Structures are given as structure tokens and as C-alpha cells.
Amino acid sequence: MTQLLISVTSVAEAQIALENGADIIDLKNPSAGALGALPFAQIQAIADYVHNLHIPCRKPVSATIGDVPMQPQLVYDCVAKLTNTKVDFIKIGFFEADDYQPCLDALQNITQTGVKLVAVLFAEHHYPDDFIDAIKNAGFSGVMLDTAKKNGLSLMDHYSGEQCKNFAERVLKLDLTLGLAGSLKIQHVALAKQVNPTYVGFRGGVCDEGQRVLSLNADKLQAIRKVL
Q1: In angstroms, rounded to a whole number, what is the distance separating the alpha carbons of residues 79 and 73?
Q2: What single-letter DSSP state applies at residue 48?
Q3: Catalytic residue among 28, 59, 136, 220
Q4: How many Å apart are CA 100 and CA 114, to the nearest integer?
């Protein structure tokens, strides 16, 4: 069954998300870019809150390192810092670059220790044909497809149903988790579910006025949960 990932900015928002059906709590600062990072102390506080809940209220927590350029040592250092928190998996955005392999090689040193990393790819960017295989070979646990520009266009404006299906098949056949996100709204859920993603991610689509920098809206969360 496809799970629901909700991006939150605070302990209060994490509580709202959990009370209204979130399966994964994602830590992100929507005011700081596509994958804006929260301050380290805030990440630790939210992760502590979620993991201290009693089962079955306890859910996995993910966090992003931020909109970091593809410089191997910089990316490595950002990921290594987050491994000191209690997040269950760390998301790394693969922004435009001439060669991604140096970053993958650096991060393989982390995946070999058992840390779960998720590569976030962007619908607006073009990647090498063998890139998903390279991600798998570097020891990543999953791939997420998102949008880099938060300009009102959703993932489904960039990818047709057939393109989503092909992308999903390439990821899932390698036994990687698959996440779909990118300004998704309730009307996109049915199409997303057709490709059997591991989870779908929401921020703006479950916020007041549909604006990702505003507060989470419990009614919108409940509506998404019902159709998912």
C-alpha cells in the first residue's frame, strides 16, 4: 500500500501530520528552496519527538540536507552531520552537474555503514541513462522524483502517465523504494497510485491556501488520506 509522506517544519506540524494520517514525517524548510534544510537542532528536536511516541504512533522520519551543490566533500559533510540525528533516512537532491559519480562515490562510504540514503531526482533535469543503476550501486535505499522549481507546476505537468510508469518500473525493479512528490494535489493521487510508488509526498497541497510556506491544514491532510 502506498504511504503518505508529509513535510513538516516543527514539532507542532509533526503532531498535526501524525494525527491526520501521515506515514512518514519529512523534515524540510520550504522557505529555503526545493529541499531546504531545517536547522540541525530543529531536526533533532522533531526526530526526538516522533521517535519518543508510543507504537503505533511512532513513524519513520526523513530529512533533507538542503539545496546543496554537487561538490562531493560538501555533500558528504552535510550527510555525515545528519547521521548524528535520529532520522531514519536522509534525502539528497541531485541538482544539475556534469558528473554525479564523484558524489555517489563519496556517499558510498556512508551507505556502507548502514545509513539509508534517498536520491532525489528532479523532473526538470536530465540524467544519464544509467543513473538509477549507479544510485543502486552506491548503496542508496531509494529514489524520489520531485520538482526543483516550486512555481505552480506539478510533477504531472512535467511527466506524463507513461513517463511516470517507466520511471517507476526502472526504480522498483532494482528493489529501491520509490517516492513521488512535486507540488502534488489531491487530484494527482489516483494517477500517482497507478505506478505503485512506495510513498507520495505532500507539502503545498496540504497547506493553507495551497502555499507551501503556510501552515499545514488538517482538513486537506484528511482528504488526501481518504483517497490514498
Answers
A1: 10
A2: H
A3: 28
A4: 21
**Contact present, 122 and 147 (Cβ < 8 Å):** yes
Percent of the chain's residues with pLDDT above 90: 95
Instruction: Check 59, 81, 91, 150 and give the catalytic one.
Output: 91
How far is the C-alpha of 149 from the C-alpha of 97, rounded, in Å? 16
Task: Provide the sign of the torsion angle of the four alpha carbons 94, 131, 98, 158, taken in this order.
Answer: negative
pTM: 0.96
Are the C-beta atoms of 200 and 181 separated by less than 8 Å? yes
The 3-state DSSP class for residue 20 equals: coil
The answer to whether 150 is a known catalytic residue is: no
- And the C-alpha cell for 217? 491544514
86 labelled catalytic: no
Q: For residue 164, what are the CA distances in angstroms to 55, 77, 121, 182, 214?
A: 34, 32, 13, 13, 29
Contact 94, 107 (CB under 8 A): no
Residue 52, burial from CB neighbour count under 10 angstroms (0-12, 13-18, 19+): exposed
56 residue type, one letter: P
Query: 80-84 long-range CB contacts below 8 Å, 24 or more apart?
Result: 80/110, 81/40, 82/40, 82/43, 83/110, 83/113, 83/115
pLDDT in tens, 57-116: 789 999 999 999 999 999 999 999 999 998 999 999 999 999 999 999 999 999 999 999
